[in-house]
Amino acid sequence: MQKISVVRIFMTLALVLTSLNLVAKDTENVEKEGKGGLKTEIKEFIAHHLLDSHDFTLFSDEKEHKYYGFPLPVILWDGGLKVFSSSKFHHGQTVAEVGGNYYKLYHSKIYKTDAAGTIDYDAHHHPTNAKPLDFSITKNVVSMLLISILMFFMFRSLAKSYKKNNGIPSGIGRFLEPLVLFVRDEIAIPNIGEKKYRKYMSFLLTIFFFIWFLNLLGMTPLAVNVTGNIAVTFGLALLTFLITNLTANKNYWGHIFWMPGVPTFMKVVLAPIELLGVFIKPFSLMIRLYANMTAGHVVIMSIVGMMFLFKSWIGSPLSFGLAFALSILELLVAALQAYIFTMLAALYFGMANEEAHH
Amino acid sequence: MDKLLDQFSFGLFFWQILIFVGLIFLLKKFAWGPILKSVNDREAGIKDALKSAEEARKEMQNLQADNERILNEARAERDGMLKEARQLKETMISDAKVEAQTEADKIVAQAQATIESEKKAAIAELKSQVAGLSVEIAEKVVRRELADKDKQLELVASMLGDVTLIN
């Protein structure tokens, strides 16, 4: 028995070594062949995927310029409201002409151009063309609307099931109710306190499920990166910031501008630091969510991309296994980030409501 | 940071705030409000039910204590009654004994008095009979032995002795 297992170990080792050799050869080949063609393509695909988009592309063939999906409405404010379909851009290949003005899509942004669609660049290769105010219903906006509608119907059904079923949830409510109670009992009450948590519950519940569901939507093959968009996380952090400071009591402001219990000199020193903290707290919320979700998308897509780079019979399954394992990890991260954001928001609300206890 | 600012889309930010704030208010009215209310009501109901169960338990205990007390009182009363009855019995018996004793004494006394009087009557009768007999004897003796002086004296002496004995 022992002999056989030793032989097996050697065979496995030999296999792994040869396959590693194959992998090395393959990457060399790729780099030689297309000047890193596939690699660059994957990089560009990932970079493009992380950004918002003016049309909802489900899958595409970049080489053939074939896109499968549907266009979304573009809404511009450029000396008047201009609304048209994003199909006019033809995925950035043509210039859209609307009411005598010409617009071109360049790296997911809309620029005003001349009829030929010329884009002028500055020294850093940044376009210098004028940018109209863009209020388009983009892919991220559609995803947010989708999740909002989904949330509305899910929680409406939970609310209704109480009435129908004599105070006991039914159907999907059985899954949702413990989560609602979790937000209340584990996030809101311990951080804000029994007396004042009620007025923050709507915000905390909405933000928890909103972030979580959007994170999960990012895990589907649609892979929309909404919570990994800085504008979205900025919006969420800004609301947290506003609610924290608008509902703060005297004690909170007292701790910022005139810290009790320290010498006067220290009070003067601490005030600007504390004031800075007021802005840093929501800023950290914004960056944390953005960075975590973006990083997750980049890592998973890179490993999926590796499947196409390693065209070997062990490298590709290995990347597949890794991508699979990381996807499971990302599912956890999706919930964890929603929890952390909500938890910290509740913590800040709690600070704003703390009573003096000296 | 530069790239981040470059990526920032004001339009997306605008829609995000609009959708999110709208969602908060919509859900507050149609979902969170009713959900939290139902949950709180249910929890309050459970709390009330537990409280009333506790109260019922306490009441039960009180009732049991009451029962115990009543039972004890009844037992004490019964004991008291039994004791009283026993005392009554004892006094009755002793009273009866005393009465019987006096009655018996009375009867005995009466009997003794009767016996005494009977005895006296009997003695009186015996005396008279003895007197008659002695007179008769004396008559006979006197008739027969008057001649012998010694015998006369002997006779007198014996007669005298008898007389004292009788008395």
List the helices and strands and how they pair.
The complex is a heterodimer of chains A (358) and B (167).
Chain A: H1 2-33, H2 37-50, E1 55-61, E2 66-71, E3 73-77, E4 81-85, E5 96-98, E6 101-106, E7 109-113, E8 133-134, H3 139-164, H4 173-192, H5 201-219, H6 230-246, H7 250-257, H8 264-309, H9 315-352
Antiparallel strand pairs in A: 1-2, 3-4, 3-8, 5-6, 6-7
Helix pairs in contact in A: 2-8, 3-4, 3-5, 4-5, 4-9, 5-9, 6-8, 6-9, 8-9
Chain B: H1 2-7, H2 10-145, H3 149-166
Helix pairs in contact in B: 2-3
Secondary structure tally: strands of chain A: 8
Shape of chain A: globular
| Global morphology of chain B | rod-shaped
Percentage of residues in DSSP E strands of chain B: under 5%
Count of DSSP helices of chain A?
A: 9
Helix content of chain B: over 70%
Number of strands of chain B: 0
Largest sheet of chain B: none
The total count of helices of chain B amounts to: 3
> What is the helix content of chain A?
55-70%
Low-confidence residue ranges of chain B: none
Low-confidence stretches of chain A: 20-35
Tell me which oligomeric state these chains represent: heterodimer
**Category from helices, strands and their pairing of chain A:** mainly alpha
Biggest interface, chains and residue tallies: A-B, 47 and 35 residues
